[in-house]
Amino acid sequence: MGLSAETSSLARQLAELLEESNEQLVFAESCTAGLASATLAGVPGISQHLCGSAVVYQIPTKVAWLDIAPDLIESHGYVSEEVATAMAKGVLRITPHATLSASITGDLGPDAPEATDGTAWIAVESRDSRSLRKKVDLPDSVSENQTDRELSLRLYRQRLAVEWLLKAVIEFLES
To answer: pTM score, two decimals?
Structure first.
């Protein structure tokens, strides 16, 4: 199952904005497991502006790769503004040629705790200390759209989370 027209359009729009602003973007992805980077990588010429993505799906990986303090995760939970911020700052720190970072962490289910089920946090950071934070509440069921009906709720939420992450970076660059 390919990308939706909306997702493809967002990827192209983001690529154009990165080109115009000459930004170098790096992702730190948890719940999207690299799908945001893979989506953007489908745009021809993006290699000039996409540094890569740290897929930090598990908590120990967030700690080891991005140097996120375990007590931060313990006190705020892995689905939190604080952890998304630490992820964005951490991946920007370890990618010296990047000028901009974007992170996402969330709980897409199934079997997620009720308090975090369908919730994601996005953070965007720049070297000039500008930032953006966004909480996203994803739907409890798959869209009635015929194409989406074949998707599991988890994959549906994952694809929507990618769209929200791309939109957040677009919003950041347009502000």
So the answer is: 0.93
